[in-house]
Amino acid sequence: MPQEVDTNELLLKLSELQTLYKFMTQELLSEHQLSASALNLIDILGEEKATLKSITEKSQLDKSTISRQMNNLVKKELVIKTSGEDKRYAYFALAEDAKSIYSTYNQTFKEQFSGMLAGWTEEEKHLLSVLLGRLNRSMTNGLKNSKMI
Fold first, then answer.
1. Could you read off the pLDDT tens digit of each residue along the chain, which spans 149 residues?
2. How does strand 50-51 pair with strand 90-94?
3. What is the rounded CA–CA span in Å between residue 8 and residue 49?
4. b (16+ CB within 10 A) / e for 64-93
């Protein structure tokens, strides 16, 4: 007969996972001299040119915050700001340095994570993936039902 699992124990494990993941990402971001918000904006821009309005919509943050962060990335020469034909609109695109830093960050992160799972069997990794996917769907549905998202 399956053993009953205490919800508090699951929540503690999730909290610990979140803390460890955050620590791992902060260490790596620090090595690449990036902030989490800068990484998020670089990810949002990708290979496209975008206006402040479209970046704001994708990030779901307020326009003043995005404007300040984008101007900071422009000063660091990670983002190129250009004017459109209509001078009221500015367009932002990633500089090659930003693309390179982002690629290196992602590759290093994947390698570190793979190293942490080195002792795991393929079945264990697959099971973790399935269970995390199920948890994500359950949480998404629960949040939708409670109208939080």
1. 678 888 999 999 999 999 999 999 999 999 988 889 899 999 999 998 999 999 999 988 888 989 999 999 999 999 999 987 777 788 999 999 999 999 999 999 999 999 999 999 999 999 999 999 999 999 999 998 887 76
2. antiparallel
3. 45
4. eebeebbeebeeeebbeeeeeeeeeeeebb
The candidate with the shortest Cα–Cα distance to 44, out of 90, 94, 78, is 94
Give me the count of residues in the chain: 149
DSSP string of 67-121? HHHHHHHHHTTSEEEEE-SSTT-EEEEE-HHHHHHHHHHHHHHHHHHHHHTTTS-
57: left (phi > 0), else alpha (psi -120 to 50), else beta? alpha
| Residues 6+ positions from 149 with CB-CB distance below 8 Å | 140, 143
Distance, CA of 78 to CA of 85 (rounded, Å): 23
As given in the structure block, the two tokens for residue 43 are 């990810």
pTM of the model: 0.78
